[in-house]
Structure formats: structure tokens, C-alpha cells
Amino acid sequence: MMLGHMFAGLVTQCEIDTGLLSLSVYLARHFNLPMFPTPLVPEDWTRPISSPSIPSKLPRIFDDFDSLTQTSVHVYTLPADLDQTRIPPSGPIAVATLTLDHEPGTQAMPKDQSVGDKPRVKAEECTIGVVSAQREIASGWQCFMDTYAMNATNANGSIDRGDFDMEYKHTLCTTSTVRLHGSDLLPDTIITTDAELKRIQQITPLPSTSTPQTYNLLRWGFFSVYRKMFAFVLSVNLTAMVAFFYQLKSNESIVNYGNAATAASANFCVSILIRNEHIINLGFRCVCCLPVSAPLGIRRRAAKVYSHGGIHSGCGVSGTFWYIAFTVLIMIQYRQDGLVGPALAVTTAFALFLLIIILAFAHPKLRTRMHNHFEASHRYGGWLAIFVLWAQTLILVFSKGQQEKQAYGTVVIHTPPFWFLLVITMLLVYPWTQLRSRQCQVEQLSSHATRLYFNHANVSSCVAVRLTDAPLCETHAFATIPNYSDQEKGFSVLISNAGDWTNKIISNPPSHIYIKGVPTMGVMRVALIFKKVLVIATGSGIGPCMSMLQAYPDYPMRVLWSTKDPEATYGSRILQSVFRADPNAVIIDTQKNGRPDIVALAYALFVQSECEAAIVVSNPALTRKLVFGLESRGVPAYGPVFDS
């Protein structure tokens, strides 16, 4: 086990105490090893570093090298003029390749028991493995390695009496790549070729699902976390409603329109409260407090926190059902002469009509086909419904005060719907108190996209702001892209042509624009609770992903982006940020390569990169397809639910 412990110590010590560059230079100088020639590395990439830093603890790693019967080291170093060098798309850079005489973790036999100059090892002790490592090297560069361990056996698979040779080396398909922090350099080849895409899928083909398709459609499609939340809230309310009307047999005094109004207003209050920016951010912050060391099963379930819209919808529908119950009960129970009766009838009928209109346009099919009508019904219909409910509540307070000869103030403080309506009103007014007109600088990327820069404040990662040029008419949420930590204060948003409003902004960009409310966290935020993530984007979906890529360029991640002519459409800055976060980013130009099998590519990259989760940002149909395709194959996948 001596050599096994020595090699394990080599990996650990290098990772903690030094970088691969220092290791390479040390080996080259102290063991007098020549530079290993290869056609993959240009000649100027093999020049030695002028002033490497060698930690004092490094020589201890090689104390046992004399005991090895066969050792060879091939070293590549980086050029001295880092700023003048462009990163090649692939090829070994600063790579240490060791050829050892046995596999770490197996028994190293004494020399006197060896056959020739190589030790004997039992066949069952020898396995083929992969050693992955991440090394910090000079000036913020990082090298990512995948080293394959290969063995040789004789015909009958036994090596008890034969020679055994174990090599650790970099193969052409797993050569290391280098990340340069703080540089605006792009690889020579930006677009992933068809051959590379095919190779990725050939290494890890897309498997068929292990469960029947009907089960998958129900488990991962219909019974999504959003729908589970909706069903839970609705079930609780329907159960309470059944129990409420069941009291007619024993305690009729409980079954009155006042209690039904309380239940309806409570549901409406929760429905609006769960959409408040601070409540949403609180939920994400609680989830992001989970350490990456927590069990993956807990983290993958907690990451569905962005499905909170199911509570909003469930409470909205439940509140409407309770209001229908209120309408029936008040028609039966309320008796008073004068104008109060007709006033209650008008307000009740009008409020019920508005609630039904809001629910109808909120249905997923109508919301998709008539999105502008959905927004108008939610905005104007919601405001009008709250106004009508206020009028109805005050009429009931006035009527009760007259009937019971009580002061109106006393009746008000004992009326629960009043307090719920007060909270609802405050929640609706609050975003307007945060409405500000902000100056913005425009970067016209193309006829399809533009980027707005703001310098009035910093924002945290993975949050969205609501922009508008007409606050009373419409607002639109856009993911923010925070500036790098070494840049000036501010952030930007990427606007892509996706409708009338975005087309207007791209065609005639404003110098000032309104920002409403406070920044709100989104689905990309949950990436922070995973050790390594696969970020999947199509088209302008790269915008929300950029928030993560720029805020955490060093975070372990892979990027898969499929879009039409990315550099011409979105500019070099977007591409620079992508390659800073993932120097091996897979970028597909659909104009040249066509539309790939994105599910197969995503699955292959997920497996090969050993990620823990996949984050998808695309259009609604493709997002659902990707999330379903990955989840049904055991991959934790997350994407926006498009419920607003």
C-alpha cells in the first residue's frame, strides 16, 4: 500500500500546498526531464516559466520516488507572456503525466518477489479507475484533469505470475484545459463542431427510461412540485369547506357568511403574500443555507423552492370557492331593508364576476395564448376586485353597527376580513413605493438583442428586476447580470426580442427606464447548493444564466448553450463571460449545425462532468421537455415554471 498512499498523498498535497505549474517546473528541473513534444501544443507553449513559486513542502512528495521501478514524467509549461496568449480550445497545458508501475490502492510487492523489475499483483486487486483533479496554477489559472488508469493482463485475465504494468497518463480525449481569470480572451474556436457533439453523445449515449412512459408522464410531468403544492392547498381548503358545511347538522351558528368571508379573505391574503419579493427571497435564502455537504436527496428537493407559485394559485382558487360559499350564504341569511341589501348584491355579484375572469385567464392554456389579456385581468381586475371587496366590507360593517347598536370602530376591529384586506392593500402598494426612474446605458448587440447597463446600485446574484416605461400598463421581469467584483458598481440586463414591448426597447432604446419593486431571486439561485452544476440555455435564456456566470465565475459548472449565431447576436462580452466560467463550454450555432438533440447532449455532459444538478433556462416548451427528459432519467433538473 506504500505506493498507493504515496500517490494519494501526491494528489492531496498538490491540491492543497501547490499548483500543477509548480509541480511541472519542479519535476522538469529536479529530474532533468525533457519537454514532451506533441502536435497538439504549439511550440511557444512549451517555454518554461521564468519565476515559478516552489513551496518548501513540495519535495516531501517525492521522498519515495527512488522505490519506483519504472517512472516517467512528461511536463508541459505555460508561456511567460500570459497576456499575449490565446487559450487553445483543447490540448494539454501544464500537464504532469506519470507512468507508475502499479495502481494506487493495490499492494506493491517487494522487489525480491517481483518478476523482472515489475511487481506482481493479484488480478482482483486491479481495477480501471479515473483520477480527477483541479489544480491552481500561476496568476489565477486553473487546470482541470481527468486521468485514466489502465492496466495490462495476459490472456486468461490473471497476472499472478505475469508482468503487470499500470500507467497514468492523459489521453487525447481527456486532455486538460486552462481557465484564465480576468481575461477577455476567447478561444480560437467558439462553436462546438458536429464531430465534437457526436463524440460527446457517443461517449455517454442517452439511455431509455427505466420506468414506463405513462408513469414518467404522471410522476415527472403532471405531478410536478408546483401542482403538488396547488393540490395540497386546494385539498386543505376543500376539506375545511366540507367540515364547515357539515356543521349545519349540529351548530348552524358557525355556518354564516361572516366566517366564509374570513376564509376567502385569508386565502386571498396568502395568495398575494407568497408573491411578495421579500417572502420569495426569504425562501431562497433559507434553502441556500443548506451546505453542499448535506445529503443530495435533501438538497434536490429543497431546490424546488421556486415552485412557490403553486401556493399562489391554490390559494387564489380556494379563495374564490370560499367567496362562492359566502355569496350563497349571504343571499340566504342576510335580511335588512333599505339600500344596504341592493348594495351588497351589486358588490357581491361584481366581485364574483371579477374573480372568475381572473381565474379563467390564469388557466395555463389561456395564459399562453392570450398573455396580454392575462396580465390585464390580473392587474386591473385584481385592483378592482380589492376595491369592490373594500366597499363590500365597509357596507357590512355599517350594517352590523346599525343592527347591533355598536360603534363602527368597534365593529371594524372585530371584523377579520378588514385586517386581511388591509394587509393585501399594503402588499399591493409596497412595490409602488419602490418605483424609480433610472438612467441606463445601452449596448446594441444586434437587431435581436440589446443590453442595458445600470450604475445606481449593486445587486446580488441570480435576481431579477421589473422594468417598465409605462408603470400603470405593464412591467417585465429581467434577470440581472452583476458586474464582476473588480469592476465599478452596477449591473446590466439582457433584453431579447420576445414580443411587442421588447421589440420596442430594442428598436428605440431609452435613456431612462422605470424599475419597480426590489430584486427577486430566481431559479438559478438554487445552483449554489450543489457541488457542481450543468447550466443549459437556449437563445436568450443565457441572460438569466449570466447572473450566475458573472457572479460566480469560479464555481464548478459546465455550460451548454444552443442559439443562432451567438457572437453576432449577443456580442463577444457574453461569450467571454461564458468561457470564463467554463473554458470547455459547449456552444451550438443552430444556424450552422441545426437543432441538436439537446436532451441527449445535456445528459451526456451531466454524466461526463459528474454534476449534481442541471439548471435549464429556455422557452416554456423546451424547458419542460428538458426537465422532464432529465428527471425521468434520474437527473435533478430545474427550470422556471412560467406561471406569470
TrEMBL record:
* Record key words, sorted: Membrane, Transmembrane, Transmembrane helix
Q: Where are the transmembrane segments?
A: 229-248, 254-274, 310-332, 339-362, 382-399, 411-432
| InterPro entries membership | Adenylate-forming_domain (IPR052979), FNR_nucleotide-bd (IPR039261)
Protein's UniProt keywords contain Transmembrane helix: yes
In terms of Gene3D superfamilies, this protein maps to: Nucleotide-binding domain of ferredoxin-NADP reductase (FNR) module
Domain of life the protein comes from: Eukaryota
Q: Which residues form a coiled coil?
A: none
Q: Which PANTHER family match?
A: ENZYME, PUTATIVE (AFU_ORTHOLOGUE AFUA_8G01222)-RELATED (PTHR33927:SF5), TRANSMEMBRANE PROTEIN (PTHR33927)
Protein name (database record):
Integral membrane protein TmpA
Name the species this protein comes from.
Myriangium duriaei CBS 260.36
